Amino acid sequence: MRGQSVEMVQLLTPDGERVANDDFEFTGSADDLAGYLRDMILARRFDAEATALQRHGELGLWTPLIGQEAAQVGSAHALRAADVCFPSYREHAVAMVLGVPLSNLLGLFRGTDGGHWELLEKFKNYQIVIGCQALHATGYAMGIQLDGAVGNDDSGQNAAAIVYHGDGAASQGDVNEAYVFAASYNAPVVFFCQNNQWAISEPIALQSRIPLFQRAQGFGFPGIQVDGNDVLAVKAVTDWAMERARHGDGPTFIEAYTYRMGAHTTSDDPTKYRESSDEEAWRGRDPILRLTTYLRNLGAVDDAWLAAVEDEAKSLGADVRATIAELKDVTMDELFETVYAEPTVALESQRREYAAYLAGEDA
Amino acid sequence: MNEKLTMAKALNRGLRRALQADPKVLLAGEDIGKLGGVFRITEGLQAEFGENRVVDSPLAESGIIGTAVGLCMRGYRPVVEIQFDGFVFPGFAQIVSQVAKMHMRTGGRQKMPMVIRIPFGGGIGAVEHHSESPEAYFAHTPGLKVVSCANPNDAYWMIQQAIGSDDPVVFLEPKRRYQQKGEVNFTDRPAPMHQASIVRHGKDATLLAYGPMVKTCLDAAAVAAEEGTDLEVVDLRTISPVDWVTVMSSVRRTRRAIVVHEAPLTLGLGAEIAAKLTEELFYVMESPVLRVAGFDMPYPPARVESEYLPSIDRILDTVDTSLAY
C-alpha cells in the first residue's frame, strides 16, 4: 500500500533502465524529463561555480548540492502555484526551478544581506539553524487549513507546504515537534527529507537505528522512501504526497535516499571522515548520468541537445561570476530600518549617533 | 465606562476584544481551550470563538512558537501562551533566533506580529521553574519588544496593543497580581504601549519598576510617606524599548533613582537603566543609581522566596542609602 512501503520507490535504475512500480508511475512526457535533465545540469553548474567562488574568497561559505539534483528538481516540479516551500540551506536546485534569482542565494553566502529575497511568498529564506523551518512549515500549513484551502472540489483552490530537511535534522527536537503538530492538526505539509547519509561528519547510523521513513508511522502519518537520485520517482512520490496534503489527507514524510557527493560546506573535508570507496559507489548512481542514458536511449536527447545545454551552463557560469560584482552590500541604515516593523526611539537614537560619528570622521 | 476587574479578568476581556476585532487573531497554547488556561486567562474563549481560534496545543513550547512563526507567514496574528516563565526555555531558540530576526533578515518583508504571553515572577509559593523573571534575556535580543502590565487597566489595553503591533511582543504578566482588582476604563484611549507611566508623584527619589514590583514600590512609597520621604514611582510598562523620556524626566526632577526588579541583579534591567542614567544625568544626580533585585542564584524554594524577592524594607533601606549621599 502506498505510504507504507518497505522498499524504496525507484522508476529509473542507475543504469538508466525504466522500471515499473506497483504504486507509483511517472506520468510526465519525455519533453518534461528533458527539462528536468536541463535543470539538473544547470543546477550542478551553478553549484560548481558557487563552490569555486568560495575558493576565490568571493563567498564566505557555500553548501554544495552535488549529488542531490534529482531529489531537488523532482520535488520542486511537484509544486503548484499556491504551494509554499520552506528550504534549509542547500536547496539551490529547488530555488532555481521555482525561479528565485540566483543572486539572492549568492548574496546570503557572500554576506551582502541577510536574505532579502524575492519570491518570499513562494520560497522562504534559507534556514541555517537545523530543523527550525519544519515548525514554520507546519504552522504555515495549519494556516492553509484554517483558510479553508484544502480539500476543495476545485483543486485549484487547494495548497500545501513542503519543508526540506536533512537526515541530521531528523534528530532535532523542533523537527520531531513539527511531526507531532502536523499529525495533531492533520496539517497539509510534506516533510521532504534528503537523507544524504551525512550530517557534516556524523553518519546516518549515528542518527537513526531504523530507516528514517519508518519513523513517520510512529507519528501517525505515512512515510515513504524514494530513490533520491531518480528524478522520475521523486517527482511521482512528491506529486502523491502534495496531492494528499492539498486534498486534506494530512502530512507525509518522504525520505529521498541520496548522497552528498561534496562536502557539507566548503569548510569541511570529507576525506577526514568517510571512505572514498563510498563516494565511488554513489558516483555510479549519479542522477544526471542515469537520466541522460535513459533519454539518449529513448531518442529524446542527443549530442546536439546536450551540447546546447552545456553552452547554456557555460553562459550561466559566466552570469554567476558577473553577478558577484553587482551584489550590493546592505547599508547600516537599511539594517537599522528593518530591525522592527515599528521603529523604536532608542534604536533611532543609535542610528543618529552612528550617522553623526560617520559625519565626524569624514570632516 | 469604568468597571472594577481583576487583572486576570481584564486580560480575558482584552483577549476577547482582540479576537472579536480581527479574524486573523488566534490564541494557541497548552490547556488554554477547554480548561481556559492554568490561570483561567482564556476562560470561555474557546467556547465563544471555537477550536480554530483558541487552539489547544501539544505540550511542546518550541512547537507552539515555531508553528506561530508559520502562522505569521500565512497572515495570522498568533497569541501564544507559555504556561509558566520557567517553561519558556524549550521555546527560547525559536524566539531569539527566528521570531526576533525574521523581520530584519528578510529586509523588512516578513512581519512577525506574534504575542508571547508569559505569566512571570514569584511570590505565589510555587514549585521550581514557576517563579522566574526571564525578561533580560528577551530585552537583550534585538527584534523583540518586551512589556509588562502592572494593573488591570494596562492588562486590558496593553494586550490589545501588543496584538495590534506588527512586531513580536513578549508580554509578561505578573502572576502574583492576577487577582488584584482595579478600575478598567473601557472608553478612554490608553497611553501608547511603549510609554512609561508615573504612577505616584514625589520629589525625593524615583523608584523604577515594572510588573509585579510596581505594587511593592507603591506600598514602599506609602510607608516612606509616613516617615516624611516623598517617593516617585515610575511603572516602566515597556521593558524593551525602555521609555527613556519618562524615566529621565522623573529622575531629572528627583535626582535620585532606585531600580527594583525580581530578576537576578547582575546584568539585569537595572544595570542598563543605571548605565543609561549615568551617561545622561551624571551631573544632575545627587547619588548613584541603586538597585534592589533578586540575588544571583536560581529562584529559591518557595518557603524562602520572601527573602529573595525585593521587599518594602529592602527598598526603603536602599532609599535611605540613596538619600544619605
TrEMBL record, chain B:
<dbReference type="GO" id="GO:0016491">
    <property type="term" value="F:oxidoreductase activity"/>
</dbReference>
<protein>
    <submittedName>
        <fullName>Alpha-ketoacid dehydrogenase subunit beta</fullName>
        <ecNumber>1.2.4.-</ecNumber>
    </submittedName>
</protein>
<dbReference type="InterPro" id="IPR029061">
    <property type="entry name" value="THDP-binding"/>
</dbReference>
<dbReference type="InterPro" id="IPR009014">
    <property type="entry name" value="Transketo_C/PFOR_II"/>
</dbReference>
<dbReference type="InterPro" id="IPR033248">
    <property type="entry name" value="Transketolase_C"/>
</dbReference>
<dbReference type="Pfam" id="PF02780">
    <property type="entry name" value="Transketolase_C"/>
</dbReference>
<dbReference type="InterPro" id="IPR005475">
    <property type="entry name" value="Transketolase-like_Pyr-bd"/>
</dbReference>
<feature type="domain" description="Transketolase-like pyrimidine-binding">
    <location>
        <begin position="5"/>
        <end position="180"/>
    </location>
</feature>
<keyword id="KW-0786">Thiamine pyrophosphate</keyword>
<keyword id="KW-0560">Oxidoreductase</keyword>
<dbReference type="Pfam" id="PF02779">
    <property type="entry name" value="Transket_pyr"/>
</dbReference>
